[in-house]
């Protein structure tokens, strides 16, 4: 259906394309006198977007690294001239030069989905002064400042992660022989995200939004064609539904805050925060920012939990090591006592297993940056205004950096034997290191702790097809045979 709708949309724009191609041919290219990176911009207008979105990201990147250069190549995706800087040296260069050469950039579909509060008639922002640095992502800025994601803040929330995981496993899997891992992983992570960001425990309200969040996640990197049947159309409708629900939540939160209730969540902070002129953030803007935060904290954690269940279920030897680690922690605690920060620090082997899961199935395929000022890398010039695509796909399964890269081997991360610098970067690095790294670590470990204490499991379809590219998903939802202990 997506391809059919895309074909219709291309037919609609073909006339304008025919006219524009003549203008394009006669127009001088300011980049023509520069030594640009090797590569191809692909087809006029759409570039290589089809290959990028509908092929595997690692294949898209790997094929071009082999064809053009292992260090750098150019392409055109999602309407933007884009450069991909590859390998550990590329990671290091990017992380070391954030805010100097690059700033955060959201692809146009993502901007449309999460910026509904911005009027299309709004004037562009004023140019930056030479001494100013570009602002980081607005949602990220909101949660960095109050310290919501600092260890001391997260440690207070860890017990809630523990109890929610226990309650949902009991409610949905107790007494069952066969279950599906992916739907529960999505529900748990969405409930955790909404509890953390919104301060709400209304599980029913949250559960009915799961499919809408899936649609948004897929639509963030899609062809921006708003016809029924397309990925972007579904994402747009889903965003409207979630936005309406969030506006109701915001009104309820304001009413609760007016009664003197404590403010211990990010939504409360957004409601009371002022800009430099003393104005509060409009409700529509709060809704869009919160939606972006929940999406970021939802899909990546759910994906990692799901594939963690797959790999551990296929390896009884790994399962036994994880279980022994968690039973030792449980034995040191009183009955019904929840996890504490010190307990998580003892889950070293479990974290190695999670790291290996993320290496083989990165929860985040990549992110975009915008080039602030022209620079040179590997002998090539990257012009101002181009976009840069950062991805883990240039190193995470490369045999140069990982021996037997297709093998699931948690021992790769043992102290003193870990991956070489800048070869394993699932959370990015530098100033834009994912601020939710520690949140994700605690959420996954809290779930795993409850899982291995209560259950052993087997994967029913080891060769189950993985669908989706920017958001890898087991086609059948990862069915498991469950054994209560």
From TrEMBL:
<dbReference type="InterPro" id="IPR017972">
    <property type="entry name" value="Cyt_P450_CS"/>
</dbReference>
<keyword id="KW-0503">Monooxygenase</keyword>
<keyword id="KW-0349">Heme</keyword>
<keyword id="KW-0472">Membrane</keyword>
<protein>
    <recommendedName>
        <fullName>Cytochrome P450</fullName>
    </recommendedName>
</protein>
<comment type="similarity">
    <text>Belongs to the cytochrome P450 family.</text>
</comment>
<dbReference type="InterPro" id="IPR036396">
    <property type="entry name" value="Cyt_P450_sf"/>
</dbReference>
<dbReference type="GO" id="GO:0016020">
    <property type="term" value="C:membrane"/>
</dbReference>
<dbReference type="GO" id="GO:0046872">
    <property type="term" value="F:metal ion binding"/>
</dbReference>
<dbReference type="InterPro" id="IPR001128">
    <property type="entry name" value="Cyt_P450"/>
</dbReference>
<dbReference type="Pfam" id="PF00067">
    <property type="entry name" value="p450"/>
</dbReference>
<keyword id="KW-1133">Transmembrane helix</keyword>
<dbReference type="InterPro" id="IPR002401">
    <property type="entry name" value="Cyt_P450_E_grp-I"/>
</dbReference>
<keyword id="KW-0408">Iron</keyword>
<dbReference type="GO" id="GO:0016712">
    <property type="term" value="F:oxidoreductase activity, acting on paired donors, with incorporation or reduction of molecular oxygen, reduced flavin or flavoprotein as one donor, and incorporation of one atom of oxygen"/>
</dbReference>
<feature type="binding site" description="axial binding residue">
    <location>
        <position position="434"/>
    </location>
    <ligand>
        <name>heme</name>
    </ligand>
</feature>
<keyword id="KW-0479">Metal-binding</keyword>
<keyword id="KW-0812">Transmembrane</keyword>
<keyword id="KW-0560">Oxidoreductase</keyword>
